[in-house]
Design goal:
The chain is an alpha/beta fold and about 325 residues long. It folds into two domains: about 5-80, Orthogonal Bundle (Arc Repressor Mutant, subunit A), CATH 1.10.10.10; about 100-115 and about 135-314, 3-Layer(aba) Sandwich (D-Maltodextrin-Binding Protein, domain 2). Helix content is about 40%, strand content about 20%. The radius of gyration is 23 Å and the shape is globular.
C-alpha cells in the first residue's frame, strides 16, 4: 500500500479515474490520447503501487472490483481536495488558479448568438493560470455531468430539467426540418402539405427533444443519432428527413446539399440554457467565469431561473 503519494501516483490515479468513467480501456483512449497498451501499463503500475486489483476485464466486459470502487471514490475526493488547495493557494498570492470545466453540446459555438468564445477570452485575460476544459457532449449527458460535478456548468439544450439544477436562458437556436440532395422532396415543389411527410423516413434524436410536427403526424423513425453530426450525416444521405439547427445546416444549404422543408410552418426556436448546480458552493474561478459569460452574453450578472417561453430540448 502507498506510504506516500508522488506526482506520478496522482497521474496514475487520474488515468484510472478516466478509465472508470469511460467504462473500459478502449473507451478511454480518446480522452487520454494514448493506446490501450499504454493504459494497461499505467493500470498495472498503479495496482502494484496500491497492492490491490482495481478492475476486471475480459469477455464479460469491464468492471471495477470492490476495492477498485473504493479507490475510485477516494481518488475523486483527492482530486477535489487538490483543486481546492490550488484555488486557496492562488488566493493567498492574490491569483486565481485551479480549473474550470465547461460542458457544451455540439455545433453550439458556430451559433452567432453564442458568446462562449468571448467569455473564454475575457476570463483568460484576468485568470491566465486557471486551466479551462471544454467537453462536447450530447444533451442527454450534459445535465448528468453538471449534476455529478464533472462539469462546473453546462451550456446547451436540456430536456429533463432536474430539480437539483438551475436553468438560465442564455440564447436560442432555430430548428428547421431538412432533406438532403437525392431525397424525393429535394426537387419537389414547395407547395405540399405537412401530412405528405408521413410517407418518408425520419431520423430522431437519441434523447427527449421537441419538434413542431403535429400530433396527427408521428412517423416512425428508422434512424437514431445522439449528436447533430449524426443527424446531418443521415439527412445528407438523401434518405431521411430531420431537424437541425439552422446556423449549422446553412453550410450544406449553401452548397445545395440540403434544403429546408416547410420552414415557416415547422421551424421553431429552441432554448439554450446556462445550467448550474443548486445550493452549491461555487469555486472562485467558476464564479468569475460565469460572471464573464453572463457579461459577454448580455445576461443579468446573477443567477436566474429559466423562463418557459421556448422549447426545452434539442
Amino acid at each position: 500500500m502507498l506510504s506516500n503519494l508522488s506526482e506520478m501516483d496522482i497521474k496514475l490515479l487520474r488515468v484510472f479515474a478516466t478509465v472508470a468513467d469511460a467504462g473500459g480501456f478502449s473507451a478511454a483512449q480518446i480522452e487520454l490520447n494514448v493506446g490501450p497498451s499504454t493504459i494497461s501499463t499505467h493500470m498495472k503500475a498503479l495496482e502494484q503501487r496500491l497492492g490491490v486489483r482495481l478492475c476486471e476485464r475480459g469477455r464479460s466486459g469491464f468492471r471495477l472490483t470492490e476495492r477498485g470502487t473504493l479507490i475510485y471514490q477516494a481518488s475523486q475526493r483527492l482530486f477535489l481536495a487538490l483543486d481546492e488547495f490550488r484555488t486557496e493557494a492562488g488566493a493567498a498570492r492574490n491569483c486565481l488558479t485551479g480549473s474550470v470545466t465547461v460542458g457544451i453540446i455540439d455545433w453550439l459555438v458556430s451559433n452567432p448568438d453564442c458568446a462562449l468564445d468571448r467569455a473564454i477570452g475575457a476570463f483568460n485575460k484576468v485568470a491566465p493560470e486557471v486551466q479551462i476544459s471544454v467537453r462536447v457532449v450530447s444533451p442527454s449527458e450534459l445535465e448528468r455531468l453538471v449534476l455529478d460535478g464533472t462539469c462546473d456548468f453546462g451550456l446547451g439544450a436540456c430536456g429533463q430539467h432536474s430539480p437539483y439544477l438551475d436553468y438560465e436562458d442564455a440564447f436560442a437556436e432555430r430548428q428547421v426540418l431538412y432533406c438532403g440532395a437525392g431525397h424525393p422532396l429535394f426537387l419537389a415543389s414547395l407547395e405540399f402539405e405537412v401530412s405528405e411527410l408521413r410517407d418518408y423516413q425520419f431520423v430522431r434524436r437519441a434523447y427527449a427533444a421537441p419538434d413542431s410536427l403535429p400530433s396527427s403526424l408521428r412517423p416512425a423513425a428508422t434512424a437514431v443519432a445522439d449528436l447533430m453530426d449524426g443527424v446531418a450525416a443521415l439527412i445528407l444521405s438523401g434518405r431521411y428527413l430531420g431537424f437541425l439547427p439552422e446556423h449549422m445546416a446553412d453550410f450544406w444549404v449553401s452548397q445545395d446539399r440540403m434544403r429546408p422543408i416547410l420552414d415557416s410552418s415547422l421551424g421553431y426556436l429552441n432554448a439554450i440554457y446556462l445550467t448550474t448546480r443548486k445550493a452549491d458552493a461555487t469555486k472562485p474561478a467558476t464564479e468569475l467565469f460565469l460572471k464573464e459569460f453572463r457579461r459577454a452574453q448580455g445576461l443579468k450578472l446573477r443567477k436566474a431561473h429559466a423562463t418557459k417561453g421556448l422549447a426545452g430540448g434539442r
